[in-house]
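Hi Prof. W.,

I finally got the Glycosyltransferase BC10 prediction working! I wasn't sure whether to trim anything, so I left the full sequence exactly as given:
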Amino acid sequence: MSESRQRPPFKGPRWIITLVVLVTVVVITAFIYPPRNSVACYMFSGPGCPLYQQFLFVPTRELTDTEAAAHVVMNEIMNLPQSKIFNPKIAFMFLTPGTLPFEPLWEMFLRGHENKYSIYVHASKKSPVHTSSYFAGRDIHSHKVAWGQISMVDAERRLLAHALVDPDNQHFVLLSDSCVPLFDFNYVYNHLIFANLSFIDCFEDPGPHGNGRYSQHMLPEVEKKDFRKGSQWFSMKRRHAIVVMADSLYYTKFKLYCRPNMEGRNCYADEHYFPTLFNMIDPDGIANWSVTHVDWSEGKWHPKLYNARDITPHLIRKIKSIQRAYHVTSDLKKVTTVKPCLWKGEQRPCYLFARKFNPETLDRLMYLFPNYTSSV
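And this is what came out:
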């Protein structure tokens, strides 16, 4: 019988082994560091792909059931694909006690751009008498609003709810009866519609008029480290407006525990709800300053009121030339933070609107309007 032959040791070409190793390395690398928007992304779905770049809450503690449900809803809203609107519009939402004294000025601002904006008016005390056809029929169902109360936030949410009905409305601007535009319509439109941020004022104030208003009753959902302050005059993208309408968890905390004369504190929900909400859910999606200028230099409870004698080309140019946002803490240190107003990386004027203007300034503003809005 012939002896069984044993297989000789493998002496194949080394290039085959080398090739297998190289392919393995490439596959692993493509999974971990795929080129963005490449075929590798869709083949391997690695963490460097857009799929993994989606907005996502990263909780730092175990969430309550209510929080977990709220975060799921907000995640879904924030990750909705961007709608492609043929004719995006700005929703100008006026929060006023009654008649809007600057309707003629706003008509000058809006004229000729009828397909690029919508108007909504919330009159909290009495039905306004409109002097401009641009505002006629734009009143929404309104309720009384008390300064410093949650009813102010309710009115803002009510305006958002009505404005969101129109799918073409892509940016939402809250304005008061004493607000005026600083630039022409085209500049304002392009600045807001093509911005990649919502202009919501937001900063941390450790003083008595900031974190001193915080209540421990807001725990665990709202921690003191997340509590923020800012101007109520916001300008926000549609996605953020939908988040506001979907929120009940954080809104309820502010409704119950942020109000005047509570536990010896005066907490004003309209100054804290939006800044805190967006600081928690999308801090990188807001500018941290408002596009509406207000002069607090007098150090009073209410901002400076501009009268007719104050209205000069110099005043308007001065406001329009501001390119840095300032925040000052309310503690004894009076720490001032300064931030450049950047629009897609380009430094620009911070403010598109200004308040607080006395009705007597109307004629003077209308006289200056063609000149002061024509230049940046």
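DSSP finds eleven helices and 13 strands in the chain. Does that look reasonable to you?

Thanks,
D.
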